[in-house]
# Entry
Amino acid sequence: MNTRAPVRRYDSVQQDWRAILPYAKGSLFADHTEKLENTYRMFSVSLNEAIDLEQHGDLEKASQGIEIAGEFCARLALGISAVLHAVRQHARHFGIVPNLALLEAANFHSERGQRAARHSNLLSHVLLSERSQFLNKLNTLEEIVDELGDAFIEATEQLGHRILAHSSRLWKFLDLYHFDLNTCLRETCVLLKSFLLVLPEDQLDRFDFTVCGLARARRKSTAADPALIRARRMAAVAGE
# Structure
């Protein structure tokens, strides 16, 4: 297996995004991004339906719908984290460093997301190597996904149990967290393509196996508890 750090063909993330991947890499990219996109669509639709029911005063159906949105949120967060963790593992082990663009705090709507993006960018100015900067961005995105996913599910559980105190504030937070998880998804897709452009062909199967293994954590059929989600992620990482 070739362990040398590959040479980048393009000079920017923008050029990477416009580039055409070779067939094998393109198939892997399409497979993983389509899975994430499908989960996101179900997450988004279920949340929008729950919000619409709540606005029309049907609180019982809204509470049921928001529990479904919480389950899809858990699946999306797990899927994004699996990709990010697999990229981070390969980048650290094989010295693979693709083109990098810093996170934009303005692309996040929640205070959590904006704060994490600003902190990541400040740290990137201190880190000397591109490799360290890349790993820092991966760590930050994974932390944002974990925190927002847990916060979203905690809010859906409160609304699902008809805890009405501060309910309007909780619905607002759900919309913010949904927006920022979408931002993390977009960042992950762009990052994955840049990474695949420099990933050696003979490492594709191993990378694919890692992503699938991390994403194979067992899920409950109902809205998941944040502690269980965190435990599943830890178990998946430990078993990779």
About this structure: Residues 71 and 224 are 6 Å apart (CA to CA).
